[in-house]
Design a protein that fits this description.
Elements: H1 3-12, H2 14-17, H3 24-46, H4 68-83, H5 88-93, H6 104-115, H7 119-125, H8 127-142, H9 153-163, E1 171-173, H10 180-192, H11 201-209, E2 212-216, H12 219-231, E3 242-244, H13 250-253, E4 258-263, H14 289-299, E5 301-312, H15 314-317, H16 321-332, E6 333-340, E7 353-360, E8 375-380, H17 396-406, E9 435-439, H18 440-447, H19 470-494
Parallel strand pairs: 1-2, 1-4, 2-3, 4-5, 6-8
Antiparallel strand pairs: 5-7, 6-7, 8-9
Helix pairs in contact: 1-8, 3-8, 3-12, 4-6, 7-8, 8-12, 9-10, 9-17, 14-16
């Protein structure tokens, strides 16, 4: 049984729970409460040295021998006991956990199905990877809630490959979701260190307990993240590697500075205006969450620290506070690379996004806080690219040309030359290169500090079969209207009326 087969089998269990009134959005949380207990049993069975993290009386063998109402009552008691565990991590995972399964036959069928899975095959790829595959399946199928902005694993891995986190560095994600970036960094470090065996005991302990830090606002999502981390042997501190709270509030304000930050902040404006953005240390006040997160990220980097951040197009061109934040970013950091991502790779169709790579200070002076950006390199992976989706999946091969021109220096200082034509038809000229450089002066004079930089011409021919769904086209039209409105406001402000009539 392959990894994908097991993920599909787990996903199909949702059909059992539909009669309980459990929809897809609640299904994963309901399933993983049970699945985590099973996975811990499998780890303890296959690894004699592994300490069973769950106490006696709250293990899989305490469940799978029961039936009927006795089983349902025992399961509810286990959830309560785990939420009150002396192990702070286990109690954090099961905090306020409950089940809405009422029919004993449904719970029995879930347990029977989990017992029938070939866990030996699953453990070859890692139970953590299997669990993560289930989370990704949830994102691709539901296309709602947090899943709509689920960051594709191939993009996460590519960003990690470019940033190259190192042993001993603190890596954080202030909007970590189900901890995809933290897991990818852990996998990268383990691949470089023979699963941490090349490290000293002190270094290995640091990697497991202190190197990776996430923040998640939603308690159920944090529960998934903690489980994901624990199944990948990431312990964090006593409360786990993922803190519950708001990075744009007191929790974020109190974080120590990081060597590396990787993130895909939530899109949109703050609900209820700027009520959810309570930081008083952000220079530029805004209700735009991405602009607030961007400020948090470059402020929270150590001198010389590196960041890779997924941001929607509006951050690149929004006027007013948006311009102020971009200028401040380019002053305090070396914004060396922008990757323009294609549409369709996020499950919220039509969203246009970019990855900004930057380093705090400069290579010569990490403590420099003025004029740090001299040149910005832009890779356009959007123009004249397919409309990615289920029929045309976005894969690692699409990012390999970018990684090659990015270079082997994580701070973007590797020698670079304009010119990359992997996905371009026609002659290899500068005008149709996907990889170009723009000076800080040019950005100021020609773009008024907008970073919405594009130069490739859209193909004249239109293949009807390659057109996006109508809803996607509508989203793109709205995006273009918002862009035009932002430019109109900028013009109005320049003319002196402050944009009040825009």
């Amino acid at each position: 049984m392959t990894h994908n087969d097991i993920v599909q089998k787990l996903w199909n269990l949702c059909d059992i729970l539909r009669d309980e009134g459990i929809n897809y959005s609640n299904y994963v949380t309901e399933l993983v409460l049970l699945l985590f207990i099973k996975m811990e049993a499998e780890i303890a069975t296959t690894n004699d040295k592994a300490r069973h993290k769950l106490p006696e009386g709250s293990r899989w063998t305490d469940l799978n021998q029961l039936s009927g109402i006795e089983l349902v009552n025992k399961y509810r008691q286990i959830l309560l006991d785990l939420s009150q565990s002396d192990d702070r991590l286990i109690s954090a995972i099961y905090h306020n956990a409950s089940t809405i399964i009422k029919e004993p036959k449904h719970l029995e069928q879930l347990i029977k199905t989990l017992d029938g899975i070939d866990w030996f095959s699953a453990s070859k790829d890692g139970l953590g990877d299997l669990y993560e595959g289930l989370l990704e399946k949830n994102a691709t199928e539901t296309k709602s809630g947090a899943g709509q902005y689920f960051t594709p694993r191939v993009l996460i891995n590519s960003m990690v490959n470019c940033i190259k986190p190192q042993v001993g560095e603190v890596v954080s994600d202030p909007a970590c979701g189900t901890a995809g970036f933290l897991i990818a960094v852990d996998n990268y470090i383990k691949a470089q260190t023979d699963d941490l065996y090349d490290l000293t005991a002190e270094q290995a302990t640091f990697q497991r307990q202190k190197a990776l830090v996430g923040i998640e606002l939603v308690s159920d999502t944090r529960r998934l993240a903690l489980m994901n981390c624990l199944l990948h042997d990431i312990e964090g501190d006593d409360s786990g590697a993922v803190l519950l709270g708001n990075a744009l509030g007191d929790v974020g304000k109190g974080l120590p500075k990081s060597d590396v930050i990787l993130a895909n902040p939530p899109f949109g404006t703050a609900k209820g205006g700027d009520a959810s953005i309570t930081r008083d240390d952000l220079t530029y006040k805004t209700s735009n969450k991405q602009l607030a997160f961007l400020q948090h990220i470059y402020r929270n980097l150590k001198a010389g620290g590196r960041a890779g951040v997924v941001l929607p197009d509006n951050v690149l061109f929004e006027a007013g506070v948006g311009t102020d934040v971009r200028r401040d970013l380019m002053d305090k950091c070396n914004l060396h690379t922008i990757l323009r991502l294609p549409t369709g790779i996020f499950y919220a169709q039509g969203v246009k996004t970019n990855v900004l790579f930057f380093t705090k200070g400069t290579a010569e002076n990490p403590h420099q806080d003025k004029n740090c950006t001299q040149n910005v390199w832009v890779y356009d992976l959007r123009t004249n690219m397919p409309n990615f989706g289920k029929r045309t999946p976005f894969s690692a091969s699409h990012l390999e040309p970018f990684e090659k021109v990015y270079g082997d220096k994580p701070n973007g200082t590797a020698p670079r030359n304009e010119g990359e034509w992997s996905f371009t038809d026609g002659g290899q000229t500068q005008d149709n290169s996907r990889w170009r450089v723009f000076s800080r002066e040019w950005i100021k004079e020609q773009k008024s500090d907008s970073l919405d930089i594009s130069w490739l011409k859209d193909s004249d021919s239109v293949d009807a079969e390659s057109l996006a769904e109508p809803s996607v086209l509508v989203d793109e039209a709205v995006d273009e209207l918002e862009r035009a409105l932002a430019e109109h406001r900028a013009l109005a402000m320049a003319l002196g009326d402050g944009g009040e009539n825009a």
